[in-house]
What we know:
CATH superfamily of chain A: NAD(P)-binding Rossmann-like Domain
CATH topology of chain A: Rossmann fold
Number of helices of chain A: 9
Mean pLDDT of chain A: 97
CATH architecture of chain A: 3-Layer(aba) Sandwich
Shape of chain A: globular
Structural class of chain A: alpha/beta
Distance between the termini of chain A: 30 Å
Oligomer: homodimer
Amino acid sequence: MRIALCGGTGDLGRGLALRLTRDTDHEVIVGSRDPEKAREHATEYEDELDSRDIDGDINGFDNAMATDRADIAILCVPAYHLADTVEGIEGNLDDTVLVSPAVGMHREEGTMSYNPPSAGSVTALAAAAAPDGIPVVGAFHNLAAGRLADLDATLDWDVLVVGDDGDANATVEGLADGIDGVRALAAGPLAAAPEVEGLTPLLINVAANNDDLADLGVRFR
Amino acid sequence: MRIALCGGTGDLGRGLALRLTRDTDHEVIVGSRDPEKAREHATEYEDELDSRDIDGDINGFDNAMATDRADIAILCVPAYHLADTVEGIEGNLDDTVLVSPAVGMHREEGTMSYNPPSAGSVTALAAAAAPDGIPVVGAFHNLAAGRLADLDATLDWDVLVVGDDGDANATVEGLADGIDGVRALAAGPLAAAPEVEGLTPLLINVAANNDDLADLGVRFR
């Protein structure tokens, strides 16, 4: 498949680009509002893979161009950029599955709390912003981006997938399952997204309160 | 230590009574509003352990008597019984740590959602109901009670502990760590309880949406 990483120049985009290219046969395109920045990051990701003797072409374009003919577009942007990112790419969405990994959180006295938008969840916000007929799937919310982006780190994590379109969910579950050390789990419809997103502040709180733990994910057992 | 399981006649109480007696040296007392029911369940738990050649005395009393001289009292009751359960035992709380494992949830169209009380979390509700000076710790929220109560089942779970009294948290972490296959993790102050409680509906949704999974807990990795 062709996978566009909109806003793919941050840690989450970097981690997904590196691992999808290393572990799967999917074609990865890095998107950014600034096409020059996207190209620079794509080249840097290729160089990182090349230094490990891993072949893989990663191209960089502006978000709209990156999404052109993509099977899946992952919105690796903060919640407050979701709507304008979707607006910028909607002309190029055609049988594309949109994936929302963002979470709303706030920190008070060192403790992270889940802070959903009025839509109920950030995934629901993405679904509201998407054009009619374009499925939105919530996934990749609970990955510690730093560890994801470090190819020396082994993963042992579950990725939770939520959404109202069963075929789109299955497509994204297949994508996540392709990453070494990751298992995709169905977590229900879009209405179940708040509990999935709320796991992210919990991961941060647990890492902050236990000396021997950092960059956490979870396994369901 | 002496551990009172208030409302300890349900699955959570049964699981904690059986496993604490089997895996630790703590003394377990089963409490119920109805002392006769408490005695019956205590005897049944003893019989279950005896059938596995495990020695252990488990006594049953009404909740107030069960809590007398207890080091820890675990409130194994639904959220809507928390306040009256605390009221029923408060005369016997003396250097006792109260533990709140309850979660507020609602189900809509087959999907579970976290439904906290106006206090912010059920753990905060318990803290508000407790007499001054009695520490309240949130723990054991995310254990699948059915698997916990089945001594043939092996556990591979983390127990998240929240609360504002560091000594009380440490006492409860030690208690949880004593159960075979359980690791206690500090998850922050009382303000972090909603994210801990919100994990429970997520566990139920994941179990409901994946054919090969049931009675889930989590490991942080």
